[in-house]
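Weekly structure sync - notes
Attendees: PM, LS, DV (DV joined late)
Agenda: review two folding runs queued last week.

Item 1: First target. Sequence and structure tokens pasted below for the record.
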Amino acid sequence: MTAYIPPLRDIKFTLEELVGLDEVNALPGFEEASPELADSILEEAGHIAEGVLAPLNRVGDADGAVMENGEVRTAKGWGAAWNTLVDGGWNGLPFAAEWGGMGLPNVLNTAVHEMWQAANMAFTLCPMLTQGAVNAIRLYGSAGQKAFYLPKMVSGEWTGTMNLTEPQAGSDLSAVRSKAVPDGDRFRLSGQKIFITYGDHDMAGNIVHLVLARLPDAPAGVKGISLFVVPKVNADGSLNDVKCVSLEHKLGIHGSPTAVMSFGDHGGALGELIGQPNRGLEYMFAMMNHARLAVGLQGLAIAERAYQQARNYARERVQGRPVGWTASGPAGIVHHPDVRRLLMTMKCQIEAMRAIHYTAAAAVDVAHGHLDPNRRYEAHLMVELLTPIAKGWCTEVGQTIASLGLQVHGGMGYIEETGAAQHLRDARITTIYEGTTAIQANDLVNRKILRDKGEGIGKLLAEIKSVAVEMTGADDETLTIIGTRMFEAVGSAERVVTWLQDAQAQDPRLPAAAAVPVLEMMGQVVGGHMMARAARIAKARLTEGADHDGFYAAKMVTARFFAEHILCHVAALERTAISGSATVMGLDETLL
């Protein structure tokens, strides 16, 4: 497996020139977020990714997390790596100083976590989930709960989990059966939770579980779910009635312990209610939405890691004589046109995904911190629209790119020793956990498009069309081609939005059948928009004579490649959605 090199040049371009980090840094609460500090944070986070986390990626895959005599042990070196994050205060990067955090923007934290997820996805699940748990307690916990839990969790001395699903429930949380019985001012919880990432491990002094359970008088369904905080170690130092009963044996992310957790085998696990009774699912969405964007970021990160390995292999591997090769001596397979096509397909979509994620992360900052309520509302709408796209489209593309990376390696990619297969195995879970692609697609179609009769998506598409029209008149061939392809693609998207509203009235199964193709379409359209904007910026820098390393010229090429090789699929997806949805349910289930 080749080394991981943080793509700081493109990360900084996306942050500073495309997203506008300086505007985010100017928001109230980010007074310490100077450009110099941001550069320092990115450089040091990159060193940790490259020097600390990446070397452990293969170790975690080979050795995995194991359970011995009832104790969960992580792979060799993982505890020391966690201490590196704790000693540097890294877990507190996006949190306020009052809890021991750095008070820096969420978008900067996103860039840091991209590098860490790419370096070692299985490891970085732990800080990712801990940050999500901090958000839930920070937003909905009592003053006492915040004072007790947040300093230790923000520092990383304690880690956090979310305990949602159960064996009989799956993604249907209305079927949750775990119980919480009052005991004084606390509660005793009982039940079993499955698929709990870092449910138990040996890297921190305490593990703080956020658990969905039902009170004795709770109504049925999701309206009867409450949220509880249940520590592994109680305030008096005693062990709580919480234990890991087994670890799942998984296709990938072997270094991450995925636990089956049992609560209350000996009288009930002590926990506290967070917020109001029966509002647990609402509260948990603070953690779930954070996790959805973070898992979407994993799609980007694993794609970047797979791309780097495939690109380096293609440069070094000599096989055959490339078509049109006129130089003497051997040539790497990177000179074969189809290998180049694979690498360009990977590279352009990675750049688009990075722009989508950083735009969403910056919108989170604006939605929470801008002084203008209208700007906060607009940013909130942007986060709402981009979340299912960032999670659903980016993980599907990330999985595809990991597969393309293996393809570049040829037969060597199928051999575990090269490491290409690990990226594909690790990527496979991202389209499943924290809401499958279908769940994200139905969220986009039903909650983000149909519920407001297309108003929100209509505004976004109008903005994209405006940029496309402007670019079609540009005095530059590449910008004109990009603008033309964008105009065609956004037209398809607009027609699908209109069709969804008509189809919903005709048969609600039709929008559901079209949901995933619509998600893929919107991902390509929004990704294309990001690449188009990047191309405009790159053209301006080229005109200024600022391209000293060839970066901006390369950006023009990748943006045009996206327009010509990715956006062309939008028209086909339009036809799939509008003409093909009725066929989805057209066959009797007995004939499947």
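Item 2: Second target, run right after the first with the same settings.
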Amino acid sequence: MKNMRLIMALLLSILLSLLTACSLLPTDFEQVESLAYTDTEQTWLGKTASHLQAENPEYSSMYLIAEGTDAFLTRMALLSKAERSVDVQYFIWKADIIGKLLMHQMLAVADKGVRVRLLLDDLNLDSKTKKILFAMDHHEFIEVRIYNPFSSTGYKAPAALTDTARINRRMHNKSFTVDSQYTIVGGRNIEESYFSANVRSNYADLDIIAIGPVVAEVNEQFDIYFNSPFAIPGYVFDDHQSQQKRLAAVKQELADYVLSVKDSDYAKDLRNSVMYQRIESGITGENDKLIYRGKAHVIYDSPEKTLGKSELETTYLITLLRSHADKIEHSLELISPYFVPGDKGTKHLVALVKQGISVRVITNSLASTDGIMAQSGYARQRYNLLKGGVELYELKPKAKSKASRSLSRSAEAKSALHAKTYIFDRKEVYIGSFNFDPRSANINTELGVVCEIPAMAAYIATESFDKSIKTAAYKVTLQDDNVVWLDKVNGEVIVHKVQPETSWWRRFNLSLYSILPIESQL
């Protein structure tokens, strides 16, 4: 028995050593500083931006992009005009129809001498996508860096077990900037469900494409992250070297893929869109009514948040956002797919109502959400929020809108909310990656733009709340001190006493998660 204990102890020691070794990242590499270009005024995009900014160069100009195909076409159009640089930063990048088409176009512009910098979080990067990225990284004008990677080996489980505190903190930022002149910031990741390309699911989301002073602020944010110690160069990874001779093959594979989807349903959707017709007639062919000009500034967490530094020790986005929320006099309207206010947030929102401020929230329903755990955190507070006078609306899973073109092809398809938008007194609006939950507030890093433009704030509030909640969302309220869901169908109000369009099993899982002590991680 004593010998058996010694053997088990030895085996455990060896296993722990192996796990620890696998989780460590190499430190003996040179982190070369790389900065955004600032001399791009003479590029085509620079001249276009200058023309649009001629009357008010001190203001930024922004165009709202809600529809999925429009969001994809805008990115492709910007890439096609790139002359100096492309800087991209995302939480998720999949090698599906969206990711592959974008990577093919990036390789095409890199072949023309355009510098391409990609900064991607490691959590959702699969081996298929990494192989393409590492092959691209061998291109003279492409540099790939992976944010807060699990390990250089590609194995994630060992690091998740032995370095949990670090691995738990992810880069959730999303930006797409071309020639330091045009930038796209919002909630979308690079995956087909965010661009109306998936026949089974679609995320309702919101981006802004911007020019003017706000672009320099996005550049500054990107450079800070790209040069941070958490942004590990592609060549550090074990799989990188094996892709050294694969660049030409990857180019051909992507080119073949592009040809294979040129007559796909999604390609037809793209060609039939209004945005496509506008791009065909020039990138400045947007709807002028939806171009907003005014003061805007970028807010974001410091990468030091990844070290676990507190809000008192480094810059937190929530601190910067709070300064706008504290000025509210009349209304606060929140759009957040993962809405987990917790006890503190619930008390704060109810206190605003007591001050005479209207507080309205749109989030996912249990039927539409892809995150039941996050939904459980919201469900715990739903009664208290309603009792305190907060208005709650939950997106229907079959909500139809311009953004759900793909849903018409499948009876099984559903919509889910993914936009993160906060409207203060219908005078200012935040658009970005920040969810109203503990993970965005305290764990992950986030990015967004605050636009001090009343016309934009009022437009989004009108479209998202005044119009959409009438048909696209359930109104959640109290009847006889019980939570119910109101659904208006053909002029008739239907009262649901259990969460509509859900199975007992889904509701059981929600109840189970609701009793677990996991709220701080949601």
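Discussion on item 2: The first strand starts at residue 60 and ends at 65.
Action: LS to circulate a short write-up before next sync.
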